[in-house]
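EI: anyone free to look at a 158-residue chain?
SC: sure, send it
EI:
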Amino acid sequence: MARQLVSLRPIGRALMWMLGLTVCMEPAWAIRHPHAPPPPQYVEECGGCHLPYAAEFLSAEGWKQLMGNLNDHFKVDAEIDSGNAKSILAYLVKHAGHKSSFDPGPAKLKITQTRWFRGTHADASRGHWPKHKTRSNCQACHPKAGEDDFTALSDPDF
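SC: here you go
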């Protein structure tokens, strides 16, 4: 009685196809930040003036510096009570971006100056900024940014 060998090639091809699909989809997945929801204090205190940015947008060191100087927060006094400040800082540091995403040396305090931002927005730098006036206005290009979804773009041709 002859044994029939089962070819593993179709299974291997399927696994390689799924791996390839995962790699191709990763950039879109990576900008939907799967993290714990921010504490209400962060949404209330920081979101009262601007989009409460995802913690991954700065390094832990950047968040520490930023939160340590709220009396001069980009030329605005944004001081908050120490209890809220500690809670917010703990969240930001715990969920901060990995240091490999940022430039070596002193931490950048402006998200738009980080290596991560410059890399993910390289194409946008070629002509879309003047229309939106400021790079810190995420919702000008990403209409669902307030829902922590940066995959949708307001300009479908971009």
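EI: Confidence is low (pLDDT under 50) at residues 21-32.
SC: 👍
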